[in-house]
């Protein structure tokens, strides 16, 4: 722990040296010695010390009493006076400087130690007391500022549950005096429908020494009621003794209005959703009817198309097949027959959706492959090279999803048609 710094102000060189030796043995940090009051004032202006040992009678125009008085008023460093006489009239004069002790010359080391420790301890207590008092004054000022500013209505009650204080904001809001609000007077401004409920919540919490919160309507000075959120709790003194309740009220009228508006909007939205849902259900029903009609119409059209294909094109094919035709012409007639059957076959049209990915030449080749035509026959029929036929075969396998699979292309085409 740091030892205090002691400044010696003594014009007797022998005594000053003796004081230095004793202070050094006691572990203090020594400043000085100085020989005048003026010198002491100049020194402490730049270099702080914890205590000053000062002779009352000093050389120079300023004696120790005058210097100590200035020090007490300005920097507040504690001073212990040195004097040669215990009954010296100067000691009475020295009281105006509020010294922390006196030492009678010659000074013994034991007296010096005890006086310095006492003076330093007393100064520490004085400093703490000043700090505490300053904090208390600041706290009181802050409390006053808090309770008398802003928009919060503050109240307190005693051990008897009765109101004993309302802040200025409360009184300005209600337009009433503190005397009118004391006791149960504050209830006179509470809305009649809320009054008993407020009293029940407050008394119930009071009896249990619990915190509470409640909402009620309080009449303003203009006669209009405002919604208040009141929160309160028990209060105790520094000894822990229960002394009543303290609470504050916040005007929540705007919040209440917003909540009511929100409920109204929510109700309107729900109604609109119900109406919209009903409209959608009607629309869905109409769409379902239209879809059923479209499917029926599609089926009817398909049946007519298939009937026409079979009645007309296949009839012509049958006539052609009975004629004397070259092999290549016969192959083309068979291709026409196969294509017509594909179109007429209701399920085979599913394969047609896959064939939409194929080119016209690839579709022709696919039909001949399904009929069992070899690569050589396809070369002759289409007058293309073998390499081109193989390329078409490879593309067919890729587009039909059987590339690099051990599946015969003709078998796959026939199986798809037969589904």
In short:
With 419 residues, this protein is an alpha/beta fold.
Walk me through the structure.
The chain is an alpha/beta fold. It has 3 domains: 5-143, Rossmann fold; 150-251, Beta-Lactamase (2-Layer Sandwich); 324-418, Arc Repressor Mutant, subunit A (Orthogonal Bundle), CATH 1.10.10. It is 59% helix and 15% strand. The protein contains 15 helices and 10 strands. It has helices at 13-25, 37-46, 64-74, 89-94, 109-148, 168-174, 178-181, 192-208, 253-321, 327-344, 348-355, 360-370, 375-382, 386-399, 409-418; strands spanning 5-9, 29-34, 51-55, 79-83, 101-104, 153-157, 163-166, 212-219, 225-236, 242-251. It has a 5-stranded parallel sheet, with helices on both faces. The protein has a 5-stranded antiparallel sheet with strand order 7-6-10-9-8, with helices on both faces. Strand 6 (153-157) and strand 7 (163-166) form a beta hairpin. Helix 2 (37-46) packs parallel to helix 3 and helix 9 runs antiparallel to helix 10 (327-344). It starts with a strand and ends with a helix. The model is unreliable at 346-353 (pLDDT under 50).
